[in-house]
User: What shape does this take?
Amino acid sequence: SDAVVETDVVIVGAGPAGLFQVFELGLLGIKAHVVDSLPHVGGQCAELYPDKPIYDIPAIPVCSAQELIDRLMEQIKPFEPSFHLGHEVSGLKRLDDQRFELTTSRGQQFVTQTVIIAGGLGAFQPRPLRVKGAEQFNGSLIQYKVKDPERYRDKTVAILGGGDSALDWALELEKIARRVILIHRRKEFRGAQASVDKLMQLCTEGDIEFIPAQMKQVNEEEGRFAGLTVKPLDSDELQQVDCDEVLVFYGLSPNLGPIGEWGLNQQRNQIEVDTETFQTSIPGIFAVGDINTYPGKKKLILSGFHEGALAAFAVDKYLNPDKKQFLQYTTTSPVMHERLGVK
Ligand code: FAD
Assistant: This one.
């Protein structure tokens, strides 16, 4: 793990709320570190609906969700945020000097004056295979991501799922595995058309076997993995699938996870905040975007933007209690122009 990062602000979550939070802090001259459990920025927009058009961003009549994220990244560039991607923030501890120590699942440590939770629905985790027998092999012969493709060389691999990850890995592993069997509960796929076409071609040529079927059971004989049982779509009879390894790509599901254990006042998996400051029940910890709740809360991107603006002022006040705050416009403020790098 890297050296401890000392900073004024750590933003947990790089969705639209976390990204715009960087901007609002930057205008006030405050730099931030941003941590996200996903390997890329953009939260739900990038993960769940990158190509869908959004129509309710002020002054942008329409743009795709990924484009919104790209534009936010462009907008925050002058403030040079540090990103820590692929890190789930797990531990929180208040130090004697009132700062917070945050730790990630990969062992990165932050010591920070304030924390802004922009965690949306929580950290995305791979959706587990939940059939009889699966638990016993989860994490061993049943994997949810490919750490090293070589593991599958000359093996028979069953790939479960019908989205881009399942398709991409089926196509990729076909080159090195002895055999790839794709199991999906429908005949249609949710992935990119080019991948679907390629897959169909390889199925016709016999390089990949596609079984449209429902997963029923993971089999075991004397404690050892013994393949899968599925129910094919076109048949009432169960079918045995022999394989050495299983890869599950059922998508990612959100989960409030470790943040739920930080002792913050919550209401149904959401963090209560004061709407003047967006501070939580713990002074120095703020929450913006989908993860917070207050009377009248609407889970919209534009709500997250507004919340980020007020949270930035509150963080500034928390960091500099004696400083007089006054509102400056980006159009006319020389100091903001300097921070934005515009002449
Ligand atoms: P998110 O986008 O959920 O991002 C939170 C990030 O925090 C995630 O990347 C997550 O990995 C990370 N995270 C959480 N916990 C941790 C942790 N412990 N450690 C590290 N990282 C963590 N809204 C609109 O306004 N207009 C629309 O048209 C619209 N359409 C939508 C369509 C769909 C299909 C969906 C699913 C949502 C739509 N929304 C829309 C809602 C909008 O996407 C959300 O309101 C918005 O993404 C919330 O932003 P956020 O930054 O608060 O959270």
Q: What stands out?
A: Residues 12-18, 35-38, 43-45, 48-49, 54, 56, 88-89, 118-124, 257-259, 289-290, 299-302, 304 surround flavin-adenine dinucleotide (CB under 6 Å). The two ends are 40 Å apart (CA to CA). The mean pLDDT is 95. The helical segments are 16-27, 43-48, 65-76, 134-137, 164-173, 193-204, 301-319, 334-340.
